[in-house]
Design a protein that fits this description.
The chain has helices at about 25-35, 40-55, 60-75, 85-95, 100-120, 125-140, 145-155, 170-180, 185-200, 210-230, 240-255, 260-275, 280-285, 290-300, 310-324; strands at about 1-5, 15-20. By secondary structure, the chain is mostly helical. α2 (about 40-55) packs parallel to α4 (about 85-95), α12 (about 260-275) packs antiparallel against α13 (about 280-285) and α12 crosses α14 (about 290-300). Keywords: Repeat, TPR repeat.
Length: about 325
């Protein structure tokens, strides 16, 4: 949670953001603290912005990032620093998380321009940028463009030694999502299995810290579960609810009690139970006190920009439970 943001004092060229870790696993908070301490001043600015984004503080993050870009235009601390690419990248994430995918795409393309100008030989950075551009295309519904961009991101990763391929898990997960959306279920499962393999391997090659990695893995598990709800795996006996429960466990260790991702995961679990005709489990889950509190929270915050739960999705949930 963001407590406050202090403007630069006289003679200083940086903001101070005071964050309070609320309801986040202590090991994750310690990991964040260590990473912040080990960063350069410019890198720390980007890292803090990234955490603002991951914690859902999109307005605060955007305000902070815009101020950094204003300073860069006036030859500030990051004008010719590689962190400039990180500023544009974080700005793109704030737009993407709120559904402004056109704005996100423009920001990610500015990220690519800055990266190419300042450090073109960094294949990991370039593949991450193309991964984000691909996600923006997904948000806009341009699946062919997204698939081509993700394929390009994979090729860039493969230019790195195997010990330094940092984004393959995320990229393959996104490729799986695109195949799923285009109803190429076999190809989607193949991509998700590749992603799972890289998530299970030594995570030292993945640059994300514990918070970022947990969020990324939970999203992967959710998407894999959704695939299995429409496509029976030929090589695994796992069920959609197995993946949803794993995702739920990760989300609970990171997110606040009212986060929309928790509500959506519970909805996914209930849908999976209904699909398996376990109707008693649906009503049991719905009556759970945690779920009821989440529903109340989502109904109160339904029209916030960072809410992924809509009136239609809650109405569908009530219809499902009523039918059970």
């Amino acid at each position: 949670m963001v407590e406050y943001i202090l403007k630069p004092a006289q003679g200083e060229n940086y903001h101070i953001i005071h964050l309070t870790a609320c309801e986040i696993d202590k090991s994750l908070a310690d990991n964040i603290r260590i990473k912040v301490a080990n960063c350069s001043p410019s890198g720390r600015a980007i890292l803090l912005a990234r955490y603002l984004v991951e914690l859902g503080e999109y307005r605060a993050a955007r305000k902070y990032l815009v101020s950094l870009l204003s300073e860069a235009r006036e030859n500030g601390v990051i004008a010719n620093d590689i962190s400039l690419a990180g500023v544009y990248s974080c700005l793109g994430l704030t737009y993407a998380r709120q559904g402004f995918h056109g704005d996100a795409l423009r920001a990610f393309k500015q990220t690519l321009n800055a990266q190419a100008r300042l450090e073109y030989s960094n294949n990991n950075a370039l593949s991450e940028i193309h991964n984000n551009i691909g996600l923006a295309y997904v948000g806009l519904g341009y699946m062919d463009e997204a698939e081509a961009t993700f394929d390009k991101a994979v090729r860039m990763q493969l230019c790195e030694p195997k010990s330094n391929q940092q984004f393959l898990a995320s990229i393959y997960s996104n490729i799986g999502y695109v195949h799923h959306k285009q109803k190429r279920y076999g190809e989607a499962e193949k991509a998700y299995k590749n992603a799972e393999k890289f998530f299970k391997q030594n995570t030292n090659r993945i640059t994300h810290d514990a918070l970022e990695l947990s969020l990324m893995k939970a999203e992967f598990l959710t998407n894999y579960g959704r695939l299995l709800s429409v496509h029976k795996s030929t090589t695994s006996n796992r069920h959609p609810e197995d993946f949803y429960n794993e995702a739920l466990k990760l989300y609970k260790s990171i997110l606040s009690d009212g986060d929309p991702k928790l509500m959506q995961t519970y909805i996914n679990i209930m849908l999976a139970f209904a699909q398996n005709k376990s109707y008693h489990e649906v009503t049991k889950c719905f009556k759970d006190l945690t779920v009821q509190k989440l529903i109340e929270k989502q109904e109160a915050n339904m029209f916030e920009l960072n809410s992924s739960i809509t009136q239609a999705s809650l109405s569908s949930l009530y219809e499902l439970v009523g039918a059970c």
